[in-house]
Structure formats: structure tokens, C-alpha cells
Amino acid sequence: MPSRYIISDHQALYFVTFTTVEWIDALPRLAYKNVVVESLRYCTQEKGLIICAYVVMSNHIHLIISAQEGFNLSDILRDLKKFTSKRLIEAIIQNPQESRNRWMLWIFRSAGQRNSNNKYYQFWQQDNHPVELSNNQMMDQRLDYIHQNTVAAGLVYEVNIMSIVVLLIMQAVKDY
To answer: b/e per residue, 15-36, with b = 16+ CB within 10 A?
Structure first.
């Protein structure tokens, strides 16, 4: 069933969410999060993606994004999800410390078999639920929501400038 949420203006700002199938906590490991971060970095450098904010949670990703002039945001998201799906499945298969790999792969394979768009596995749910952020109030609400996700997950105790800086520093150290 097609979504009522569509990207109509590719250079407008959107709040987008990628969610794993069955809400599986497939992204708790740093190696898996790094696949997503590296893919986002590639899309900003090579595909025209503009990222204003994002958070990678254990089973979903929130982004506030747009595309540079001349780039199609829907195409960027399609390619990003396709690439990260393949890379994350490979990472799960190749990780000898992943105790849940057989279970997760079974879920991803089952979801893939139910969806004719997939050959073997489906990692992400089909919809991105893009919401155009047409005013500052909407932008502030979604940005606050992203920040509050880190509190709800226990990554920080409260949202303030220091906790945001600490998260950015932690990510920079992990990326290094």
C-alpha cells in the first residue's frame, strides 16, 4: 500500500525515519552504527544529501535532511537504504560475536520473502514517513524529538548543549 507521505520538493527540509523490520534491535553495536554513519557521510559527499540532524537508535534512525539543487531526495534515500541493508546484513553475518545473527537473519529473510521488491532479505521497513518541515516550529519540534530520543534510550540524562557536544565528541572519537 503506497504511503500518503511523499517527498514533493527535494530541496525542502524533511524529517525522515528508517525503521528495521519488526522493530528488531539490529543496530546496538558500534560496528553496525558505523555502517550507517559512513553511508550517510558518503551520501553527503557524493549524492547531494544535506543532513541537518540525525540519531541512530537501536532499531531506527531519525534524520532531518534535504537534497542539494539538482539531486533527488527520494533517489538518495532509496540508494541509502538499499546500500545500508546489504552492508548491515553482511556485517551481521560476518560478526562472530553476534549471538543473535541466526534469529535476525531469519526475520530479515522472512520479511524479504514477503516483499517482491527484495531478492533475499529486507532490513528496513518500506516507508520512510517523510514529513516536510515547512516552518520553524515544525523544525524545532522534530529536532527536540531527536534529542529526546537520546534521553529515552539512556544515552544522555538530559538534553542540553553539553550533552549534545558530548555525543558529537563521542561520535567523532568513534569515527576516528
So the answer is: bbbbbbbeebebbebeebbbbb
- Whether 89 contacts 102, CB under 8 Å: no
In 3D, which of 141, 115, 139 has the Cα closest to residue 126?
Answer: 115
The amino acid sitting at 154 is: G
**Phi–psi pair at 19, nearest 5 degrees:** -125, 140
**pLDDT for res 40:** 95
In this predicted structure, what is the pLDDT of residue 5? Answer: 73
DSSP at 10: T
Q: Grid coordinates representing 127?
A: 516507508
pLDDT tens for each residue of 144-170: 888 787 777 666 655 554 444 444 444
pTM: 0.83
From the number of C-beta atoms within 10 Å of its C-beta (0-12, 13-18, 19+), residue 6 rates as: exposed
Beta strands in 5-118 (DSSP E): 14-19, 49-56, 60-67
**Residues in contact with 99: Cβ distance below 8 Å, sequence separation at least 6, in sequence order:** none
* 3-class secondary structure, 124: strand
